[in-house]
Design goal:
Pfam families: SET. Helix content is 42%, strand content 11%. The chain has 461 residues and is of the alpha+beta class. The strands form five sheets. It has a four-stranded mixed sheet. A three-stranded antiparallel sheet has the order 5-12-11, with no helix packed on it. The structure holds zinc ion (3 copies).
Length: 461
């Protein structure tokens, strides 16, 4: 058996894959697993260690991704002498979420890291049959469509799961901030005490009664129909409240956010991004939104509001997280992350956000529980899926032509789609163009012949 030295990309993909599926293993064990999985590869343990450390996959490594702000928009390059430099990347990147407990959703899939450009995805662990439910998932945060948002604010849909209230049920519960003694009573109601309890993860800081400083921000998002801004507000509220619970809640929530595919607003702007989740306003609006965002969650201009916010956020936020949430560049990056990852109905789903695009997807996402849990998604196999096969959804209108699909996908800055359907259709298109070109050339040659004959007939040639 001949030995080969794998390229940096091949090795990185294999190591991240192994580490994701064996999170408890240290460097030596992962290295041993690597040599078993790829018996022809020649790799030193030192090289394995370096790559695992570079990707923040081992303890005592270079700082983990969550505490290195630059890493979000730049790629770290370690030179032979050990010095580091950063190069900007242009594709949406996504990193593997450490210690993600997949089993709470399904045993049928696992996370696979493909390569730097493609990032992570989901592959089948076993054969999945057409029509089978692969998993159900509740959102990490929800920024529902505006009609539903308005229903929530008219006390006509649940403030947590977004299910519209069909009848006056005795289970419907009001937000504690709804009392009329408050200056700005909260209109939000919940299906049940369970939805109320679960809403405590993010509603508290978005409640007009408990945190009045958030009102101008939410109003601005609603007026401009800026779904990514609303989603980022929900997400930020969740992170800040997680910090009040304990470090492990904060760290696991923050890992989720950092694991989302991301691309900064400026990068998307350069790639002529057009909003897929409502309008994406211009730079002036970004700055205004940022000001309102900081006022809502960190520095309310009004002392009375500041006092209320301080009471909700007793435990101070780590400095690195503070800048990761509130500085302008991070804020724009956060908006980009929301836009890229929101499901069509405005929810952000941890496992669902791992799904990559294909123009002939093999899974579909449905909201089946419209009467009880509207925000819950059910992921269903559209066709038989073989073990090892990647699960995909479509980010574009799949009935469009190959050209229109490619243009639509490029506006997300994902680059050219290379799914099997696009490869096939682009090949056919090229062949057709070539055939058309040949037909045209043949017609041109016939005309040349005719011209020559005519000229000869007239005695000109
Ligand atoms: Zn509910
Ligand atoms: Zn409330
Ligand atoms: Zn395609």
């Amino acid at each position: 058996m001949g030995s080969v030295i794998p390229s940096e990309d091949e090795l990185t993909a294999a190591l991240i894959d192994l580490k994701t599926n064996n999170p408890q293993c240290g460097i030596a064990k992962i290295h041993a697993l690597l040599l078993i999985s790829f018996p022809t590869w020649l790799v030193s343990e030192k090289r394995t260690r370096k790559i695992l450390q570079l990707h923040g996959l081992v303890l005592n490594a270079s700082p983990p991704s969550s505490s290195t702000p630059q890493e979000q928009s730049e790629e770290v390059v370690i030179a032979a002498d050990g010095s580091t430099s950063f190069i900007p990347y242009q594709y949406p990147s996504s990193r593997v979420i450490k210690n993600l407990d997949l089993q709470k959703w399904t045993l049928k899939v696992r996370v696979k890291y493909f390569d730097k450009k493609k990032g992570k995805g989901l592959v089948a662990m076993e054969k999945i049959s057409k029509g089978e439910v692969i998993w159900k998932e509740d959102p990490f945060i929800l920024a529902p469509e505006w009609e539903i948002y308005d229903l929530q604010h008219q006390s006509a849909a649940c403030g947590f799961c977004s299910t519209p209230f069909a009848t006056a049920s005795p289970l419907i519960t009001s937000c504690p901030g709804s009392s009329s003694s408050s200056a700005a009573p909260c209109p939000i109601k919940f299906c049940s005490r369970l939805c109320l309890a679960r809403s405590k993860k993010h509603h508290t800081l978005l409640c007009p009664s408990q945190n009045p400083a958030c009102v101008p921000l939410l109003k601005f998002a609603r007026d401009t129909q800026w779904m990514a801004l609303h989603a980022l507000s929900q997400c930020t509220s969740r992170i800040l409240l997680a910090n009040q619970i304990d470090d492990s809640t904060l760290n696991s929530d923050w890992q989720v956010v950092k694991g989302l595919a991301e691309l900064g607003m400026e990068e998307r702007f350069q790639q002529s991004y057009e909003g897929h989740h409502g309008a994406e306003p211009d730079r002036v609006a970004w700055q205004k939104a940022h000001t309102l965002f900081v006022q809502a969650f960190s520095e309310p201009p009004n002392p009375a509001d500041q006092k209320k916010l301080t009471k909700l956020l007793k435990k101070p936020l780590r400095e690195d997280l503070k800048s990761d949430l509130f500085n302008y560049k991070s804020f724009l990056r956060g908006l980009g992350r929301m836009s890229l990852n929101l499901e069509a109905h405005g929810g952000l789903y941890v496992l669902h956000s791992h799904l990559n695009h294909s123009c002939s997807p093999n899974v579909s996402v449905r909201h089946l529980e419209q009467k009880t849990m509207l925000a819950r998604i059910t992921v269903i196999a559209k066709q038989d899926i073989q073990p090892g096969e990647e699960l995909t959804v479509t980010y574009v209108n799949p009935s469009g032509s190959v050209t229109s699909r490619q243009i639509e996908l490029e506006s997300w800055a994902f680059g050219k789609c290379k799914c099997p359907r696009c490869v096939q259709e682009l090949k056919e298109l090229a062949e057709k163009r070539k055939a058309d070109g040949e037909a045209e050339a043949a017609a041109g040659a016939a005309l040349d012949d005719l011209e020559r004959e005519l000229k000869a007939g007239l005695g000109l040639a």
